[in-house]
Design a protein that fits this description.
Layout lengths: L2 E3 L2 E8 L5 E6 L4 E5 H6 L1 H10 L7 H11 L10 E4 L3 E4 L2 E4 L2 E4 L4 E4 L16 H8 L6 H9 L3 H4 L7 E6 L6 H9 L14 E2 L4 H10 L4 E5 L8 H17 L18 E6 L3 H7 L12 E5 L29 H12 L5 H16 L1 H4 L4
Helix pairs in contact: 5-7, 8-9, 9-10
């Protein structure tokens, strides 16, 4: 049964791929799937999302009317809608990100309300060519290029049947570790008002990091500075190992009775630290299991052949292999990269995912048994 009221139309209900139920609400700006669980437990988020899309429910009477119209709606045919409740591959023809939906499907794809506190960081800025001009600077710099190329891996993890993994650049402060994360993050998004751009601070609880993992499914998650998590090495070691295991499994812990389900987040983690995981565990007297080495790749930011990050000529290079033409110092290069990646971001992933979806759909028979 279709229910119409003023500026919105309730079309019916639909299920996502894990069986959660949604009420399909047609707003002036977009057709929005409303989680029944979210409506029952935190309706303020629902009203905020509706208001953002042109439906203002500010009075108690208007809210009661909306809730009454939501009751008893019939399921819509599964051939009509795809409810995208999680980022990543929804099916062989559809990839969902916080920034939008990329689909070659004939079905209408509906994106759920985002729980991200920084939705703006997913919105592309600048042109692809402007981003490419910045990225070209990294091509001759081994560690920067490695991070940049790895940032494109998340959409391929399931296709190639490769598990999630994390990379941690470690070394002294001022060597360019955070800049590497900023540049890699610019593939997916950015924030000119945040020093780490697309990244997230590790000054968060485990529950906060679990939220980051769900939000960044289908993309990369840059977590900056392990020392911000805790100055107590025993606390840091335990927390970092838990974060590492959550990223690798793609299955954040779910509290008993929670309605928050996930079919598994697919992502790559980027982490920066002053020490390796083994050193952190040793300092915190926390056991370091050999299996961690298959989940986290520790990479020194400084060339091990250099003394204190300086080459034979005494030039401080840090994360760089050499000083590019037109620059005098590594500090100048880092400042240039930070400035450019803070202004141009998000266009590379949009172009990449759009092409990947189109090519996968065109070759569906060859890839139909892929995850």
């Amino acid at each position: 049964m279709v229910s119409t009221h003023g500026r919105y139309i309730i079309r019916g209900t639909a299920l996502d791929k894990v069986g959660d139920r949604y009420i399909i609400v047609e707003c002036p700006r977009v057709t929005l799937p409303i989680s029944v669980s979210l409506l029952a437990t935190d309706s303020s988020k629902v009203y905020a999302a509706l208001a953002q899309n042109g439906v203002d429910l500010f009075t108690s009477a208007s809210k009661r009317k909306f809730l009454s119209l939501c009751e008893g709606n019939e399921p819509l045919p599964s051939t009509e809608f795809i409810v995208a409740s999680e980022p990543g591959w929804r099916n062989a023809h559809t990839y969902v990100l916080q920034s939008g939906i990329y689909s070659a499907s004939k079905k209408t794809v509906l994106q759920c309300i985002s729980n991200s506190a920084r939705t703006h960081k997913w919105q592309p800025k600048g042109s692809l060519q402007q981003w490419q001009n910045m990225a070209k600077m990294c091509c001759d710099q081994t560690k920067l290029a490695f991070m940049l190329y790895t940032a494109f891996v998340p959409p391929l993890l399931g296709l190639m049947k490769v598990p999630n993994f994390s990379i941690m650049y470690f070394g002294n402060a001022g060597r360019g570790k955070s800049t590497a994360g900023l540049v890699a993050g610019s593939v997916w998004g950015g924030d000119e008002n945040c020093d780490i751009g697309f990244g997230e601070s590790l000054k968060a609880t485990l529950c906060g990091v679990e939220g980051y993992i769900r939000e960044h499914s289908g993309a990369c998650l840059f977590l900056d500075e392990t020392k911000l998590y805790s100055s107590d090495y025993s606390v840091l070691a335990k927390g970092l190992v838990s974060i590492l295991m959550d990223i690798t499994s793609g299955m954040p812990k779910v509290k008993s009775g929670s309605e928050d389900k996930t079919s598994g987040s697919r992502l790559v983690g980027f982490i920066t630290s002053n020490h390796t995981l083994a050193e952190i565990c040793d300092n915190g007297k926390y056991p370091h299991d050999a299996s961690y080495n298959a989940r986290l790749f520790d990479i020194p930011v400084d060339n091990p052949n250099y003394v204190d990050g300086r080459n034979a000529e005494g030039v401080l290079l840090g994360i760089l292999d050499s000083i590019p033409d037109g620059f005098e110092t590594s500090e100048e290069v880092i400042a240039w990269l930070r400035g450019k990646s803070s202004r141009y971001y998000g266009t590379a992933s949009a172009t990449f995912v759009e092409r990947l979806v189109r090519d996968r759909a065109a070759n569906h028979k060859k890839t139909e048994d892929l995850d």
